Amino acid sequence: MLKHLSEMQKAAVYTALVFVFVIVLVMLPGEKNTSVFMFVPMASVLITMLLTGEGVRKQGWAQLGFHRFHMRGFLLALAVPIIPIIIGYAAVWISGLGAFGLSAEYEGQGMFLFVGFFVSFVINAFTVTLGEEIGWRGYLAEKLAKLGFAQSLLLNGFIWGLFHLPIMLFTDVYHDDANMVLYIPLFMATVTLVGAFITYLKYVTGSIWPAIAAHTVHNLVWYYGELFTQEPNSSVTYITGDAGIVLLFFYLIVFIIIMKRNNKEIRERN
Q1: For 92-108, what is the mean pLDDT?
Q2: Which of 58, 137, 262, 267 could be joined to 211 by an S-S link, Cβ 3.0–4.6 Å?
């Protein structure tokens, strides 16, 4: 048992377990499945909480934020991730870097895709996204909070980004056709800021559900953007999606707004 560890030491144990599991999975032979990697944070949390004794205390589970639901935060989480991806794909369609439309296999299936979005949201929210968010925003965010507001937001997002790098570099799960020299810096910058926004949702609501909603919507809208983009130019990867310039600047603005709001609240309290 590691009952006497500080919050930062617990964060280090959790993070180390995450990367050990990811590296082991990457090294295993055979085809890699994205979903397996997404459950690594959950497994790492459960083991860390077992080792630290948090798993046998009510407060240990309460920190994850499953017992609270914050409607305003949840609605914000649903709305914000849609904006930059829609802007990014609209720019692609208008500029001619990709054509708006569906492939032949989905022609005439608009209603199926519409309903499928909501069904996929529920399924993904309660499986792979929950598997990630219980670790990043449920557990790690609480441990990093002592670092300070801005530092904890950015470090959470940065570690979340690092988690993806072995998967990108050593499997074909993520953008195996992209120029990694260009893609990885864009991805890390974007995901750090996206992660900061999602962590902020956890901090201000005390609930993990807005974080799960934001993460799920981000992934789904990105997928649907790709689905409705035919014959995309190779540059589309760097414009929108999960590492596009549009998302980078959008979430940079969001981060600035968050910081100004936090500074204003501090001044009002003082």
Answers
A1: 91
A2: 137
Q: Does residue 131 contact residue 38 with C-beta atoms inside 8 Å? A: yes
Q: Does residue 145 lie in a domain region?
A: yes
* pTM attached to this predicted model: 0.95
Average pLDDT over residues 235-258: 95
Query: What is the C-alpha to C-alpha distance for residues 233 and 230, in angstroms, rounded to an integer?
Result: 9
Let me know if residue 1 belongs to a domain: no
Which residues form the domain of 17? 7-269
pLDDT over 90 at 48, yes or no: yes
Among 210, 209, 194, 195, smallest CA distance to 250 is for 194
pLDDT in tens, 148-175: 999 999 999 999 999 999 999 888 877 7
Which amino acid, residue 224?
A: Y
Is residue 2 in a domain?
Answer: no
pLDDT tens digits along 121-136: 999 999 999 999 999 9
The tokens for 250 are 């959008």
Q: How many domains are there within the chain?
A: 1
What would you report as the CA-atom Rg of the chain, rounded to the nearest whole angstrom? Answer: 19
Q: Considering the domain boundaries, does residue 44 fall inside one?
A: yes
**Start-to-end CA span in the chain (Å):** 41
Is residue 72 within 8 A of residue 239, CB to CB? The reply is no
Distance from C-alpha of 163 to C-alpha of 232, rounded to nearest angstrom: 28
Task: Please tell me the distance from the alpha carbon of residue 87 to that of residue 133, in angstroms, as a whole number.
Answer: 26
Both tokens of residue 84? 């930059």
Is 38:128 a contact under the CB 8 Å cutoff? Answer: yes
